[in-house]
Amino acid sequence: MKKVGIIMGSDSDMPVMAKAADMLEKFGIEYEMTIISAHREADVFFEYTKTAEKKGFKVIIAGAGMAAHLPGMCAAIFPMPVIGIPMHTTSLGGCDSLYSIVQMPSGIPVATVAINGGANAGILAAKILAVADSELLAKIKAYAAELKEEVAVKNAKLQKIGYKNYTK
Fold this sequence. Notes:
Layout: E1 4-8, H1 14-26, E2 31-35, H2 42-51, E3 59-64, H3 69-77, E4 82-86, H4 95-102, E5 111-112, H5 118-130, H6 134-161
Parallel strand pairs: 1-2, 1-3, 3-4, 4-5
Helix pairs in contact: 1-5, 5-6
């Protein structure tokens, strides 16, 4: 059973959306990734979103370039959490995407992450699912411990050799 749907409007979004998929894989969460255009194939989009719950999706992660049509319309149709990833754009640097997501009308919430924040979208989806899954919660806690250890290792190196000699 698929638990997370990942959708993007174009294959140019793939590098960012793949980071979400990578995090879901790290936590052992099933997902389905789809390229779908809310503008160019509205009927396909509506069918995808209307049947997402029946397919077992608990969360949808949707990329948004310039406008927030994918995450916004998903949130209007899909009854469970939608996470929008604002994509960096050449015209406005992704601020257009970000503002579009965070300005959803009352009653149609869309969670958002940083511009090009694919990894955080995957982590947020995992945390949402972990509310009802103690095994998944344990994996998230272990991941947080890994992050903490990485910082400690970097700090130990800095303290040992000093900032003038520090390189990654």
